[in-house]
Amino acid sequence: MRRPPNNLRYGVPMLVASFVIFAVLLFGGVQLVKTAPAASAGGGPASIGAAGQPVSATLVAKELHFDKGQIAVAAGAELTVTFDNEDAGVSHNLAVYPSARQTTPGDRIAGLDTFAGPAKMDLKFTVPTKPGKYFYRCDVHPDTMTGQLSVQ
């Protein structure tokens, strides 16, 4: 009796093993992307502060995006955000709202007026005492410049 060629004897198990390894790597990559901050919202979170303490953070606007997608801070903290507009000749602002659905001027928790870059301005305000997720954005570019203020 003739033996099957090596490519048939080893090829099918190798194909199955390759498929399993690929599936595991793909699943791991999907989990990694789920936990990473959105690219349009900038980089990772800036964790700052202790309850009631003065804290500061820097938020950079560059190429119509923020460098941070999240700022985490303790409830009731005195927060100073240094807003660095690096986009030459482009106007930006920074406004904090209760949520992405509540973005009228009357809903604003804190904010800066628009100013052209390159320039820096400080936004100083008391963070809400109620823990939760709040929303910040540039009102001039609300589709590409957004983030989350996580109050803990």
Short recap of the structure:
The chain is an alpha/beta fold and 152 residues long. The chain folds into two domains: 1-36; 41-151, Immunoglobulin-like. The protein has one helix spanning 6-35, and strands at residues 43-47, 54-62, 65-66, 68-73, 78-85, 91-92, 95-97, 110-111, 115-116, 119-126, 132-137, 146-151.
Q: What would you say this structure looks like, in words?
A:
- The protein is of the alpha/beta class and 152 residues long.
- It has two domains: 1-36; 41-151, Immunoglobulin-like.
- Helices cover 20% and strands 39% of the residues.
- It is built from one helix and twelve strands, in the order αββββββββββββ.
- It has one helix at 6-35; strands spanning 43-47, 54-62, 65-66, 68-73, 78-85, 91-92, 95-97, 110-111, 115-116, 119-126, 132-137, 146-151.
- It has a six-stranded mixed sheet, with no helix packed on it. A four-stranded mixed sheet has the order 3-2-5-10, with no helix packed on it. Strands 6-9 form a two-stranded antiparallel ribbon.
- Strand 2 (54-62) and strand 3 (65-66) form a beta hairpin.
- It starts with 5 loop residues before the first helix and ends with a strand.
